[in-house]
Predict the 3D structure of the following.
Amino acid sequence: MHSARKFVRLAAIGAASVGLAVSMSSAATADTGDGATRAAAAEEWGGGWNNTRDTTIREKPSTTARKVGTLKKGKIVKCWVAGCSGTHNGGAYKCTSSSPTEKDWHEVRWNGKKAWAASRCLEWGRVE
């Protein structure tokens, strides 16, 4: 009788361990994956949007650079760099006449080419 209880307890611990291992493995794959999966996933979700107003997309990180397009209100633009990592210091801009002057820009994909969006004029994060 005593060894039967021991067996049941060991079986329960084993089942819990397997469940924990599977759970941790799934989380690890979702969070880190292999290098190629990680880069592809980060590239897929990174982007910017603005639900308030249209935003100008430029050839270089400056308001004097050539305008290459307009990101319409409510639309998204994907980042050029996987995961939208980092901003670049560029020309000064204001998102609105009453907002502070900023100089941070994000590299974005615009019609398959690298372009620039004023960082503070968009929200950045997951886009699908």
The first strand starts at residue 46 and ends at 49. The CA atoms of residues 51 and 123 lie 9 Å apart.
